[in-house]
Protein backbone atom coordinates (compact mmCIF):
# COMPACT_ATOMS: atom_id res chain seq x y z
CA UNK A 1 0.00 0.00 0.00
CA UNK A 2 1.41 3.36 -1.03
CA UNK A 3 0.95 6.74 0.67
CA UNK A 4 3.43 8.55 -1.56
CA UNK A 5 2.69 12.25 -1.70
CA UNK A 6 0.67 12.25 1.53
CA UNK A 7 1.64 14.10 4.68
CA UNK A 8 0.81 12.69 8.10
CA UNK A 9 1.06 13.86 11.70
CA UNK A 10 1.35 11.38 14.57
CA UNK A 11 1.14 12.85 18.06
CA UNK A 12 2.95 11.12 20.92
CA UNK A 13 5.16 9.29 18.45
CA UNK A 14 8.40 9.18 20.41
CA UNK A 15 7.92 5.58 21.49
CA UNK A 16 5.45 2.70 21.68
CA UNK A 17 2.35 2.68 19.51
CA UNK A 18 2.84 6.20 18.21
CA UNK A 19 6.34 5.42 17.04
CA UNK A 20 5.09 2.29 15.28
CA UNK A 21 2.39 4.32 13.49
CA UNK A 22 4.88 6.97 12.38
CA UNK A 23 7.39 4.44 11.08
CA UNK A 24 4.73 2.45 9.21
CA UNK A 25 3.26 5.57 7.58
CA UNK A 26 6.73 6.65 6.50
CA UNK A 27 7.55 3.19 5.19
CA UNK A 28 4.41 3.41 3.03
CA UNK A 29 5.71 6.66 1.52
CA UNK A 30 4.12 9.41 3.63
CA UNK A 31 6.10 12.37 4.93
CA UNK A 32 5.56 12.33 8.71
CA UNK A 33 5.58 14.96 11.43
CA UNK A 34 6.66 13.10 14.56
CA UNK A 35 5.25 14.93 17.57
CA UNK A 36 6.27 14.18 21.14
CA UNK A 37 6.57 16.19 24.33
CA UNK A 38 10.04 14.67 24.68
CA UNK A 39 11.72 16.19 21.63
CA UNK A 40 14.75 13.92 22.01
CA UNK A 41 12.51 10.87 21.59
CA UNK A 42 10.83 12.47 18.59
CA UNK A 43 14.24 13.09 17.03
CA UNK A 44 15.22 9.45 17.61
CA UNK A 45 12.09 8.30 15.80
CA UNK A 46 12.83 10.71 12.95
CA UNK A 47 16.40 9.39 12.72
CA UNK A 48 15.11 5.81 12.47
CA UNK A 49 12.66 6.78 9.75
CA UNK A 50 15.32 8.60 7.75
CA UNK A 51 17.76 5.72 8.17
CA UNK A 52 15.15 3.46 6.60
CA UNK A 53 14.80 5.84 3.64
CA UNK A 54 11.71 7.71 4.84
CA UNK A 55 10.90 11.39 5.30
CA UNK A 56 10.11 12.90 8.69
CA UNK A 57 10.59 15.90 10.96
CA UNK A 58 10.30 16.20 14.73
CA UNK A 59 7.92 18.52 16.62
CA UNK A 60 7.93 19.00 20.38
CA UNK A 61 4.62 20.57 21.42
CA UNK A 62 2.75 19.30 24.48
CA UNK A 63 -0.59 18.16 23.07
CA UNK A 64 -3.71 19.65 24.59
CA UNK A 65 -3.92 23.35 23.87
CA UNK A 66 -5.20 25.01 20.72
CA UNK A 67 -1.80 26.66 20.29
CA UNK A 68 -0.03 23.28 20.34
CA UNK A 69 -2.42 21.78 17.80
CA UNK A 70 -2.02 24.72 15.45
CA UNK A 71 1.76 24.56 15.79
CA UNK A 72 1.78 20.86 14.91
CA UNK A 73 -0.37 21.37 11.81
CA UNK A 74 1.68 24.43 10.83
CA UNK A 75 4.83 22.30 10.94
CA UNK A 76 3.32 19.87 8.44
CA UNK A 77 2.31 22.67 6.09
CA UNK A 78 5.58 24.57 6.40
CA UNK A 79 7.77 21.49 5.95
CA UNK A 80 5.75 19.52 3.41
CA UNK A 81 3.17 21.89 1.93
CA UNK A 82 -0.03 20.21 3.13
CA UNK A 83 -1.64 17.79 5.60
CA UNK A 84 -3.53 14.62 4.70
CA UNK A 85 -3.57 12.47 7.84
CA UNK A 86 -3.84 13.30 11.55
CA UNK A 87 -3.27 10.47 14.03
CA UNK A 88 -4.14 11.61 17.57
CA UNK A 89 -2.13 9.20 19.67
CA UNK A 90 -0.59 11.33 22.46
CA UNK A 91 -1.58 10.41 26.00
CA UNK A 92 -0.56 10.00 29.61
CA UNK A 93 -1.67 7.77 32.48
CA UNK A 94 -2.49 8.76 36.05
CA UNK A 95 -4.31 5.66 37.21
CA UNK A 96 -6.42 6.09 40.35
CA UNK A 97 -9.77 4.74 41.46
CA UNK A 98 -12.56 7.28 42.01
CA UNK A 99 -12.04 7.81 45.74
CA UNK A 100 -8.29 8.32 45.28
CA UNK A 101 -8.38 10.45 42.14
CA UNK A 102 -7.01 13.98 42.59
CA UNK A 103 -8.11 16.88 40.39
CA UNK A 104 -4.68 17.57 38.83
CA UNK A 105 -4.26 13.94 37.73
CA UNK A 106 -7.75 13.77 36.24
CA UNK A 107 -7.31 17.10 34.49
CA UNK A 108 -3.93 16.13 32.99
CA UNK A 109 -5.28 12.90 31.50
CA UNK A 110 -8.38 14.56 30.06
CA UNK A 111 -6.35 17.54 28.80
CA UNK A 112 -3.94 15.31 26.91
CA UNK A 113 -6.21 12.56 25.61
CA UNK A 114 -9.60 14.17 25.09
CA UNK A 115 -8.85 17.86 24.68
CA UNK A 116 -5.72 17.01 22.70
CA UNK A 117 -7.78 14.90 20.32
CA UNK A 118 -10.31 17.74 19.99
CA UNK A 119 -7.78 20.48 19.33
CA UNK A 120 -5.62 18.44 16.95
CA UNK A 121 -8.67 17.08 15.14
CA UNK A 122 -10.13 20.56 14.72
CA UNK A 123 -6.84 22.04 13.50
CA UNK A 124 -6.45 19.23 10.98
CA UNK A 125 -10.05 19.48 9.76
CA UNK A 126 -9.62 23.21 9.18
CA UNK A 127 -6.50 22.51 7.13
CA UNK A 128 -8.30 19.82 5.14
CA UNK A 129 -11.06 22.32 4.34
CA UNK A 130 -8.54 24.95 3.26
CA UNK A 131 -7.02 22.38 0.90
CA UNK A 132 -10.41 21.68 -0.66
CA UNK A 133 -11.65 18.72 1.35
CA UNK A 134 -10.64 15.15 1.98
CA UNK A 135 -8.26 14.06 4.69
CA UNK A 136 -8.08 11.37 7.31
CA UNK A 137 -8.64 11.74 11.04
CA UNK A 138 -7.50 8.62 12.89
CA UNK A 139 -8.29 8.92 16.58
CA UNK A 140 -6.71 6.48 19.01
CA UNK A 141 -9.08 4.94 21.54
CA UNK A 142 -8.66 2.00 23.90
CA UNK A 143 -10.59 -1.04 25.10
CA UNK A 144 -10.62 0.83 28.41
CA UNK A 145 -12.99 3.35 26.82
CA UNK A 146 -15.29 0.64 25.56
CA UNK A 147 -15.85 -1.25 28.82
CA UNK A 148 -14.96 -1.12 32.50
CA UNK A 149 -11.31 -0.59 33.41
CA UNK A 150 -10.92 -0.54 37.18
CA UNK A 151 -8.76 2.30 38.48
CA UNK A 152 -8.70 4.35 35.29
CA UNK A 153 -11.27 7.07 35.92
CA UNK A 154 -9.72 9.79 33.76
CA UNK A 155 -8.43 7.43 31.09
CA UNK A 156 -11.70 5.59 30.49
CA UNK A 157 -13.65 8.85 30.42
CA UNK A 158 -11.26 10.28 27.83
CA UNK A 159 -11.13 7.22 25.62
CA UNK A 160 -14.92 6.80 25.64
CA UNK A 161 -15.19 10.46 24.70
CA UNK A 162 -12.79 9.99 21.80
CA UNK A 163 -15.02 7.31 20.27
CA UNK A 164 -17.96 9.68 20.71
CA UNK A 165 -16.03 12.34 18.80
CA UNK A 166 -15.37 9.80 16.05
CA UNK A 167 -19.07 9.27 15.38
CA UNK A 168 -20.00 12.95 15.55
CA UNK A 169 -17.11 14.17 13.41
CA UNK A 170 -17.75 11.44 10.83
CA UNK A 171 -21.28 12.82 10.40
CA UNK A 172 -20.13 16.44 10.34
CA UNK A 173 -17.25 15.97 7.89
CA UNK A 174 -18.71 13.35 5.57
CA UNK A 175 -19.77 15.87 2.92
CA UNK A 176 -16.21 17.20 2.65
CA UNK A 177 -14.81 13.74 2.00
CA UNK A 178 -12.92 13.57 5.28
CA UNK A 179 -13.09 10.21 7.04
CA UNK A 180 -12.96 9.85 10.81
CA UNK A 181 -12.26 6.53 12.49
CA UNK A 182 -11.11 5.33 15.91
CA UNK A 183 -8.45 2.67 16.32
CA UNK A 184 -8.81 0.54 19.46
CA UNK A 185 -5.31 -0.89 19.94
CA UNK A 186 -4.22 -3.77 22.12
CA UNK A 187 -0.45 -4.08 22.36
CA UNK A 188 2.34 -5.08 24.69
CA UNK A 189 3.74 -1.65 25.53
CA UNK A 190 5.29 -0.06 28.61
CA UNK A 191 1.87 1.32 29.50
CA UNK A 192 0.50 -2.18 30.15
CA UNK A 193 3.61 -3.51 31.89
CA UNK A 194 2.07 -2.62 35.26
CA UNK A 195 -0.61 -5.29 34.73
CA UNK A 196 0.89 -8.35 36.51
CA UNK A 197 -0.41 -10.88 33.99
CA UNK A 198 1.22 -8.99 31.12
CA UNK A 199 4.55 -7.87 32.58
CA UNK A 200 6.48 -10.94 31.37
CA UNK A 201 4.98 -10.69 27.88
CA UNK A 202 5.94 -7.01 27.68
CA UNK A 203 9.52 -7.93 28.56
CA UNK A 204 9.52 -10.56 25.79
CA UNK A 205 8.18 -8.07 23.29
CA UNK A 206 10.84 -5.49 24.23
CA UNK A 207 13.54 -8.14 23.74
CA UNK A 208 12.14 -8.90 20.29
CA UNK A 209 11.12 -12.43 21.24
CA UNK A 210 8.12 -13.96 19.44
CA UNK A 211 4.73 -13.67 21.15
CA UNK A 212 3.06 -17.08 21.70
CA UNK A 213 0.58 -17.98 18.97
CA UNK A 214 -2.34 -18.39 21.37
CA UNK A 215 -1.71 -14.90 22.78
CA UNK A 216 -1.60 -13.39 19.31
CA UNK A 217 -4.77 -15.21 18.27
CA UNK A 218 -6.45 -13.79 21.34
CA UNK A 219 -5.74 -10.27 20.09
CA UNK A 220 -2.55 -9.30 21.89
CA UNK A 221 0.70 -8.58 20.10
CA UNK A 222 3.20 -5.80 19.50
CA UNK A 223 2.81 -2.18 18.44
CA UNK A 224 3.82 -3.19 14.91
CA UNK A 225 0.71 -5.38 14.69
CA UNK A 226 -1.54 -2.33 15.09
CA UNK A 227 0.29 -0.03 12.68
CA UNK A 228 -0.99 -1.61 9.42
CA UNK A 229 -4.56 -0.64 10.35
CA UNK A 230 -3.45 2.99 10.67
CA UNK A 231 -1.75 2.83 7.28
CA UNK A 232 -4.86 1.32 5.70
CA UNK A 233 -7.19 3.93 7.19
CA UNK A 234 -4.83 6.66 5.92
CA UNK A 235 -4.99 5.32 2.38
CA UNK A 236 -7.25 6.02 -0.61
CA UNK A 237 -8.51 2.44 -0.31
CA UNK A 238 -10.26 3.36 2.95
CA UNK A 239 -12.15 6.34 1.49
CA UNK A 240 -15.52 4.66 2.13
CA UNK A 241 -14.86 3.79 5.77
CA UNK A 242 -15.86 6.38 8.38
CA UNK A 243 -17.45 6.62 11.82
CA UNK A 244 -16.06 3.27 12.92
CA UNK A 245 -14.24 1.99 16.00
CA UNK A 246 -11.88 -0.74 14.81
CA UNK A 247 -9.88 -2.94 17.15
CA UNK A 248 -6.43 -4.28 16.31
CA UNK A 249 -4.08 -6.53 18.25
CA UNK A 250 -1.90 -9.51 17.50
CA UNK A 251 -3.51 -11.53 14.72
CA UNK A 252 -6.97 -10.06 15.33
CA UNK A 253 -9.01 -7.21 13.78
CA UNK A 254 -12.45 -6.38 15.21
CA UNK A 255 -15.28 -3.91 14.65
CA UNK A 256 -16.73 -2.48 17.88
CA UNK A 257 -20.48 -1.92 17.96
CA UNK A 258 -22.15 1.44 18.45
CA UNK A 259 -24.26 1.77 21.61
CA UNK A 260 -27.90 0.86 21.00
CA UNK A 261 -31.04 0.22 23.02
CA UNK A 262 -31.43 -3.41 24.02
CA UNK A 263 -35.02 -3.18 25.28
CA UNK A 264 -37.72 -0.51 25.30
CA UNK A 265 -41.27 -0.51 26.63
CA UNK A 266 -44.01 2.09 26.22
CA UNK A 267 -46.60 2.71 28.94
CA UNK A 268 -49.48 5.00 28.11
CA UNK A 269 -49.45 8.02 30.40
CA UNK A 270 -45.83 7.47 31.40
CA UNK A 271 -44.02 5.48 34.06
CA UNK A 272 -44.55 5.96 37.78
CA UNK A 273 -42.00 4.69 40.27
CA UNK A 274 -44.47 1.99 41.37
CA UNK A 275 -45.04 0.89 37.79
CA UNK A 276 -41.29 0.64 37.26
CA UNK A 277 -40.89 -1.41 40.42
CA UNK A 278 -43.54 -3.82 39.16
CA UNK A 279 -42.22 -4.12 35.62
CA UNK A 280 -38.47 -4.09 36.22
CA UNK A 281 -37.95 -7.69 37.44
CA UNK A 282 -39.59 -9.27 34.40
CA UNK A 283 -39.42 -6.67 31.63
CA UNK A 284 -36.11 -4.91 32.13
CA UNK A 285 -33.92 -6.92 34.51
CA UNK A 286 -33.20 -9.75 32.02
CA UNK A 287 -31.61 -7.17 29.73
CA UNK A 288 -29.32 -5.36 32.20
CA UNK A 289 -25.77 -5.08 30.89
CA UNK A 290 -22.68 -6.68 32.42
CA UNK A 291 -20.56 -3.77 33.67
CA UNK A 292 -17.85 -6.01 35.17
CA UNK A 293 -16.11 -6.93 31.93
CA UNK A 294 -12.79 -5.53 33.05
CA UNK A 295 -10.37 -4.49 30.35
CA UNK A 296 -7.43 -6.57 31.52
CA UNK A 297 -5.72 -6.49 28.16
CA UNK A 298 -6.14 -2.79 27.41
CA UNK A 299 -3.67 -1.54 24.78
CA UNK A 300 -3.73 2.03 26.19
TrEMBL record:
The keyword Oxidoreductase applies. Keywords: Oxidoreductase. Belongs to the short-chain dehydrogenases/reductases (SDR) family. This is 3-oxoacyl-[acyl-carrier protein] reductase. InterPro entries: NAD(P)-bd_dom_sf (IPR036291), Peroxisomal_Beta-Oxidation (IPR051687), Sc_DH/Rdtase_CS (IPR020904), SDR_fam (IPR002347). It comes from the Bacteria. GO terms for molecular function: oxidoreductase activity.
Amino acid sequence: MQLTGKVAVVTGAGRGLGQAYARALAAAGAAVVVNDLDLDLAEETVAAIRAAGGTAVAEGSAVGSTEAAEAIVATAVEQFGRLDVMVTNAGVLRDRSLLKMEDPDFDLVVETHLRGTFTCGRAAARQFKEQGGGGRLILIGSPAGQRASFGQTGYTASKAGIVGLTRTWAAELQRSGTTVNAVIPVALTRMVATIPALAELVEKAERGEPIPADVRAGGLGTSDDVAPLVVFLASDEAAGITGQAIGAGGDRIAIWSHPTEVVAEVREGGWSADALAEAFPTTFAPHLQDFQQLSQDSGK
